[in-house]
Amino acid sequence: MEKMVNELNAVSRRIGLEMNMSKTQLMVNQWCDTGTVSLDGKALQRVESYVYLGRELNMMNNITPELNRRRRAAWAAFGSIREVTGQVSDPDLKASIFNASVLPAMCYATETWPNSKTIAKAIRTSHHALERSFLKISRRQQWQQGLRSSDLKERSRLKDPLQYMAHSKHRWAGHLLRRTDDRWSLRVTEWLPRNKTRPSGRPPTRWADSFSKNFRDNGLHWMQVAKDRAVWRSCGPR
User: Fold this and answer.
1) Beta bridge partners of 58
2) pTM exceeding 0.85
3) Domain of residue 154, residue span
4) Does 168 reside within a domain?
5) pLDDT tens per residue across all 238 residues of the chain
6) 145/225 same-domain check
């Protein structure tokens, strides 16, 4: 690893690029030794998590920190449009502004998440809070007026975040399976650990479980269906 990092740094310098030591960090899994990796004689900082391409990653596959980041990003996006939506009287236009600004911030990179109940509950709870703020209704007012979440959704006309996530994931899975350049993302998706046994108890929800469940009753494998773009689009969420 150290040799590869230093070789990359040497090649980068030839074309005028320089590695930023403050942004170049080391993250390892539990099977890695406790050694260090040095760049130009300086040891890289060892971290438990790292933000890469806008998403916080960790070796424990703990999605909670990223859920918190998505929640903060959604509120920040809503804060940036609050003044605009407050001056717009057309409810459909207000909803369109919200959906175009807040949903992408809340659901960024969720294409790579599993469809677990914990994630769904966290996303829906955050969206309900944003929806109440969008309508300028507090939880107490909602309770006093006897309004259900479905009533607020009808008033706000906002998109369902879980449907938005499902559509994005379905679309990205199709792109992934139709790749022909042998990328690592496709290799990992198709990889089966044949020499390993499943531990006792119910396994954690996997990324592809939602696709497998949807096509199980039809006797089809989702990976084969995804290779046909037209068919894959026709059977996906709207």
Assistant:
1) 49
2) yes
3) 64-159
4) no
5) 889 989 999 999 999 998 888 888 888 888 887 778 888 888 898 899 999 899 999 988 899 999 999 999 999 999 999 999 989 999 999 999 999 999 999 999 999 999 999 999 999 999 999 999 999 999 999 999 999 999 999 999 999 999 999 999 999 999 999 999 988 999 989 888 778 787 788 888 889 999 988 887 777 889 999 999 999 999 888 7
6) no
